[in-house]
Every structure is written in structure tokens, then in C-alpha cells.
């Protein structure tokens, strides 16, 4: 009987692979789940391999928004990976090569499982944000109240649903899995306190993953983990009502990514540097908007004090500088602009142009020549967006809003520039 059971488990495993290769992810996931369950029941598995398969399966559930199942897979992965034995201590004298390799493998696989947990926390926060944001990306409090009311009913339902879900484990691991699950929610967080709890779990796994994937030796992995950490801060900031504290969260993102962006060698890590430049530009932009909102709340619109103006200009220039760095990275070694933007950089490049224009027109200066220079820079970048879309009509669909606003500004800015020039001439 036992051999028949094992053969059946292997069949399930192969079916899971066949369906995955056919792109039928849902059926593949079901077979994969059944295989893992049977391996546990028959006690025929290697703990680390089993745990990695369960963690990988969790990623499928997460993309489907099935967080209860995703969390269950990850909790089981954490518990079963614990059965692989403790990582032997460095002090084990004269350990054999194979023992050293085994330790390395265990550490790497546990770090991989930690990275799957990071994705769980990040996606949970991002899905909650999508559900709660209004059309300008702010928290919709009416929607929040409505969802909190619906949640109370859902919690009662969840208890029933829990019983029927596909659960892993044998009698001995069941309680351990449940206690790992209890450390993080599987419903979408609806307020700051819940969001912060998810954030802290994610941040804890960031620390674990970084211990293994260090910058020295694992550059790409290390930076991806940092980018996830930055995204966790960004998602948490959405739930923070206090704008000062929200600004501090974005500052943490800058402090995390800026040194790396500036130290990386463009020759080897161009794509990663571009991602970092763009994210830094957007983060500074976000901070600038927050500072302005705060300043306007505290003063009349027209009487910003010099300290605030200085801070605002600093953030504005930093954002423009990173967008410009991103644009410069698209140029040829001789510094020539590409005539045709490749599809993967088309939207980012045109958005960066649009933002550089907008940022230059926002810079505050009391010197007319500086004002003139900023307005000219703005006009030149707005014109680029319009002219590029005229020359490549297929690009317009990628930047509808930006194109519409750029067209409007190309009409308005020359009048503003001429008025400024007349004033300067009159004063000379």
C-alpha cells in the first residue's frame, strides 16, 4: 500500500509541473498543495525542499489575494524548515566541507523563505492601499468606515471558512503552524495600527533576509530586499495621518537607497541604478508636496518663511536632479538623446521629462533671471513630451494625463515668460 501511496504522490507532483508549464496556474497550485500535504502525511520529504516548495506556493496565493492560504503556506514553511535541524555553529571545530556547505544552504533557504514573507506583508499592505485610496491616492475615510463595518461580519465568516481550507500538518506540527500564523493578520489592514503591525513583521523578515544576502557577494539580492523595505515604508506612510511623520518615513527611504544608488557602478548595474534614481526622484517629490501642504496649513499662502522656502527648494531640486540623472542614463556615451525610446523606458522617460518641467516651474526664487531660467527649463521639457508624442503617436497612450497637461503648459508658459521679460526690461 505504501508504495502505491508514494507513486500516487509522485503522479500529483508531475501533474503539478505539467499544469504549471501549460500556464494553468490554478490547477497546478491545487496539485502542488495536495502533493505537499501527502508528503507530510506519509512522512516522505526533505524538510528544506518541502519548506521552499510551500513558500513558493504561497507566492501564487498572494498574487491571487488569497492571504489566508498564503499565510498558511508560509507558516508551514517556517515550521517545517525548522525540522532541518539547527544551523551548526561556526565553533564546531574542524567541521567537514560538507557540513559547512550544508550550513550555507540552510541559511540561504531560510533567507529565501524570509523573502517570501516580505512579499506577503508588502502585498497585503499594497492591496489594502488600493482598496482604500481615493482618485488622488489619499485615504478615503468613508470607504474605510464602511469596510470596517463589513469586516466585523467577515471575521465571523472567517472562523467557518478556516475549517474548510486546505490545511497542512500532522498532529505534532499543527499547533506550531497555527502559532506562526497568529503573528500576522491575513485580512487587509484597514487602519494605521493594523498596517503598522504588518509592516513590523515585514521589517523583521527584511533584517533576517539581509543577514544572509549581504551587499558583499549578493549585490542584486541585497538591493531588491532594500527596495522591498522602502516599499514597506511607502505603503505604511499611506496610512499615517500625521504629515510630519509621513515625511519622516519617506526620509527613511531616501537614507536607505541614496548611498547605494550613488555607489553602484553604472556599467554593471545600470538597470538597478535607473530603478533607484526613479524611486529617489519620486520620494523627494512626495516629501516636497508634503512640506508644502504643511507650510500652507501653518501660514498664509503667500508668506512662506525663508527656512521653509529653502527646505522646499532643496527637495524640489533633489527630485529634479534624480529624474535628470535617470534621463541622462538613457543617453549615448557621447551624451546624445535617444531618438526612439524603447518600450520599457518609454513611460518612465516621458514621465521624468514631465516631472522635471513641473519641478522647475515650482522652484521659488526672488531673482527674476533665476525665475526666467527655471521657466525656460520647464518649457523645454514640456515641449519635449509634446513633440515626442507628435513624432511617435503610439507613445501618447502611455502618458495621456502628462501629455494633456504638457500641451496646456506649452500654450501658457510662453506668455508667462514674456511677462517676466517685460518686467525685467522695465526695471533695467
What does it look like?
The N terminus is likely disordered. The chain is 78% helix and 0% strand. The chain has 15 helices and no strands. The chain is mainly alpha-helical and 428 residues long. 32% of the residues are buried. Belongs to the KIF-binding protein family. Pfam families: KBP_C. It is found in: Cytoplasm, Cytoskeleton. This is KIF-binding protein. Keywords: Coiled coil, Cytoplasm, Cytoskeleton.
What are the SSEs and their pairings?
Blueprint: H1 2-21, H2 25-42, H3 47-63, H4 67-82, H5 97-132, H6 141-164, H7 171-181, H8 192-212, H9 219-239, H10 243-263, H11 266-298, H12 306-328, H13 343-362, H14 368-391, H15 400-427
Helix pairs in contact: 1-2, 2-3, 3-4, 3-5, 4-5, 4-7, 5-8, 5-9, 8-9, 9-10, 10-11, 11-12, 12-13, 13-14, 14-15
Summed up, the helix count is 15
For the termini, the CA-CA separation is 101 Å
Query: Would you list the SSEs in sequence order as H and E?
Result: HHHHHHHHHHHHHHH
- Briefly note the structural class of the backbone: mainly alpha
Number of strands: 0
Specify the biggest β-sheet.
none
Shape: elongated
CA-atom Rg in angstroms: 27 Å
Strand content: under 5%
What proportion of the residues is helical, as a percent range?
over 70%
Mean pLDDT: 85
Low-confidence stretches: 1-12, 87-94
Outline of the structure:
With 428 residues, the chain is an all-alpha fold.
